[in-house]
Structure formats: structure tokens, C-alpha cells
Amino acid sequence: MPDTTGYNVAAIREDFPILARQVGEVPLVYLDSANTSQKPASVIEAMDAHYRDHNANVARAMHTLGGEATSAFEGARATVAAFIGAAGPQEIVFTKNASEALNLAAYTLGSRLQPGDEIVISVMEHHSNIVPWQLAAERTGAVLRWFDITDDGRLDLEKAAAENLINERTKVVSITAVSNVLGTVNPVADIAAQAHAVGAVMVVDAAQAVPYAGVKVDALGADLVAFTGHKMLGPTGIGVLWGRYDLLAGLPPFLGGGEMINVVKLTGSTYATPPHRFEAGTPPIAEAVGLGAAIDYLNAIGIENIALHEERITAYALTRIAAVPGLKLLGPTRPVDRSGAISFTLSTADGEEIHPHDIMQLLDSRGIAVRGGHHCARPLHERLGIVASTRASLYLYTTTAEVDALADGLVYVADFFGGKR
Predict the structure, then answer these.
(1) 329 and 314 Cβ atoms separated by less than 8 Å
(2) Which residues of the chain fall short of a pLDDT of 50?
(3) Which of 102, 159, 253, 297 has the most Cβ atoms closer than 10 angstroms to its Cβ?
């Protein structure tokens, strides 16, 4: 499938040192970007330069290095704000990952909940968007409710309407923008409108959305949005919670410590304004620098070009691997409102299902990196009637040759466990 759009995936791959390595005696085929993406040389070099030439703590140190580190850290905050269309850097809270961002949202919003209030999530959520709300419900006496899914892996909006899922008792709705298992792109803006109509706060887990198609928070209609750096070419250890400033300003602190305070006395403390109110202690400074460099890289390619590449490579992959005998796709089977996270089950010719861990290990022997398990989404797998699945996830550096290698590898796996090898 030749690319006629001008998107040069071969040139892009040259920017990622790890993609040139071997796994044993075979080339690496990295198809696990929904788990964590690889990093371009520019991100690695930006973090190295920070540690080599500018390392110091931020805000506290008034010397030259401290000023440079603070400027770099706050500059990264401004870069993130511009990337997602925030009103300004004061709406960007740095966390260590999306899980911490969602916990921050659940803990602080939970301070407003009363017994009988309702929190709405969905059955397709990552554990990071389930457990924090379960904890909030346990602390407050609130009730947790959820969207079901249809047979083709989309939110069951008709069932939700029939059940009056979002109603006058709803105080929080927290939904993933893109399923990390099914690849489903959810109608977040429509759900946000329903939430706001009853006075509820809309929280969005955008960990799988921001890296691939970009996110503009005003278009989402959300009040709080969580995402993470390591899935969008940035380093681990850095996440983001965006929030409407008026909402953030009314929320209590999440963690206590240095920098999140205004005045501390033994008799009590007052707190800084957002975003620093939610950033206790020394923050992930070099990681923020790396995230800023990752966004610069994404902007240089163009997020719209990345989205188009993902649409094309996903369409190719859905067709190619669906042709593998014994393979069953999970989620939407057409590349419409769908990301490049493709999960499936695989059976031998006699119908025996092959465990995803076995699939993963045998593919790894051929240099192909995928993920096997429940992908931190056990309730979804239970809803689908399976214990686990295998997931291949595509990104801006994925090629059709890698998809072909996966398809051929899956045939090999099925034959191996079917006794043909």
C-alpha cells in the first residue's frame, strides 16, 4: 500500500534510535505503542542537555541554574497548554502520569460528593479510570454507575438513555476518549453536553487520544482532561491534568508539601493558586523538558498528518490480520472512529484458543513486540466473555511491512500450537 500523502515514515523512523535494533537475530517490530511509545533522538537529547547543562531545582533556587531550570519547566507547561488549546499554562497541572492525574481528579472532586450522588463511568475504562472513582464512592457513599457497550464495541448510548444513566443525581461523568483495548473513539463532546445539562463535571481520560489525533479541550467540552507523556513520544514520569481554571481554583489540594503552599504555620496553612496548588514537592523537571521536546516533534510532523497515517495503517492492519485464520477482532472492525489499538483472540485450526501470553512470547521470538493480557481493563474483558486478549498498537512510525510481519507471525503461532510445526 504505497503512501501518496507525502508522509515519510522511513524518514521518521530514522529519528528513533531504538527502531534500528535487533531482537536476537531479527529486526525489532515494535507494535506496543499504546503501552508506551518510543522516543525520538530529539527528546533524549533535550533531557540529556538539561541534566548536563541546566540541572537545578525549580522556583526555589534563585541562582543562574535555578532560573534556567525554572524557565525550561514553565516553558514546557506553556508548550503543553498551546498543544491542547488550553486558555493558558495556569490550567496545566503536571503529575507523574495519567493515573495520578485521574486520582487527583477523583480525590478533589470527591470532596464534594454526598451519599446517593452518582458517578458515571463505562465498562471499557482503564483501571486508572475505575479504581479512583470506586475509592471516592467508598469514602463518600456515592453510587458508581456505568455505560455498557454494544456488540461492536461502542458505548451503548440507547441503553444509557433508557436507563436514565445521566440524571439529576449525577455529579461526575468520567469517560475515556479512546479505548486502550477496543480502539473505540467515544463521542465525548455529546456525553459532556449531557453531563453539563444536569450540572455534572465531565472528566476525560485522554491518554490514548492526545498522542494520535491530538486533543483540543474546548472541542471535547470537558472540565478536566488527563493524559500522559510516555505515550506521546515523551519520557515516563510525567503526566498532565488540564482543568478549567475556575474549577481548579475551587478544588482542595491533593498532596501536601513544598511549593503547593502560600503560608505555613503550626496552626494551619494556606495554599497556592493553581496549578502549583496540586504540585507538591520537587516536580518532574527533566521529564517536563522531555515532554516539551516531544510536543515540538509532533508539531513538526503535524498532528493531522499523524492522524491520517494512523487511519491508513489501521485500515491496512484491520484488513490484513482479519484474514488470519482463527483470529477474532475485538471492537470496531472498520477504521471509523477507531484508533490503532487492535486487540484480538486467536485459535488453532481445531478451535482451541491460544493464550495471549503464549502468542506474545512466540511473536517475541520473531522480534515482534505486542501485549498480551487484560491491558488494565479486566471489567471490559469480563464483559466480552474472555479472560485476556492480544493487542497490537500502531503509531506514527509503524509501517505496512511491520503489519505484514505481524500477520505472518500470527499464522506461524496458530500453526505452531495447532501441531503443524
Answers:
(1) no
(2) 1-4
(3) 102
Full 3-state SS string of the chain: CCCCCCCCHHHHHCCCHHHHCEECCEECEECECCCCCCCCHHHHHHHHHHHHHHCCCCCCCCCHHHHHHHHHHHHHHHHHHHHHCCCCHHHEEEECCHHHHHHHHHHHHHCCCCCCCEEEEECCCCHHHCHHHHHHHHHHCCEEEEECECCCCCECHHHHHHCCCCCCCEEEEEEECECCCCCEECCHHHHHHHHHHCCCEEEEECCCCHHHHCCCHHHHCCCEEEEECCCCCCCCCCEEEEECHHHHHCCCCCCCCCCCEEEEECCEEEECCCCHHHCCCCCCHHHHHHHHHHHHHHHHHCHHHHHHHHHHHHHHHHHHHHCCCCEEEECCCCCCCECCEEEEEEECCCCCECCHHHHHHHHHCCCEECEEECCCCHHHHHHHCCCCEEEEECCCCCCHHHHHHHHHHHHHHHHHHCCCC
Same domain membership, residue 201 and residue 102? yes
pLDDT of residue 213: 82
Domain of residue 55: give its range. Answer: 37-93+235-301
So what's the pLDDT on residue 2? 44
The CA distance from 264 to 269, in Å, is 4
Of the candidates 254, 274, 271, the one whose C-alpha atom is nearest the C-alpha of residue 262 is 271
Number of domains in the chain: 3
| 327 closest CA partner among 209, 199, 218, 415 | 415
Whole-number average pLDDT of the chain: 96
Based on the residue annotation, tell me whether 376 is a catalytic residue of this protein: yes
At 180, phi and psi to the nearest 5? -80, -10
Report in angstroms the alpha-carbon separations of 404 from 314, 346, 398: 12, 17, 11
Report the predicted TM-score, pTM, of the whole model to 2 decimal places.
0.96
Buried/exposed 213-242: b ≥16 CB within 10 Å, e otherwise: bbbebeebbbbbbbbbbbbbbbbbbbbbbb
Do residues 411 and 361 both lie within one domain? yes
Q: Residues 13, 103: one domain?
A: no
Query: Which of 280, 301, 376, 387 is flagged as catalytic?
Result: 376
Q: 260 vs 192, 211, 244, 282, 284, CA distance in Å? A: 30, 29, 18, 10, 15
The per-residue pLDDT for 4 is 43
User: What Rg do the C-alpha atoms of the chain give, in angstroms?
Assistant: 22
Query: Crossing angle for the helix pair 285-301 and 303-322, nearest 10 degrees?
Result: 80
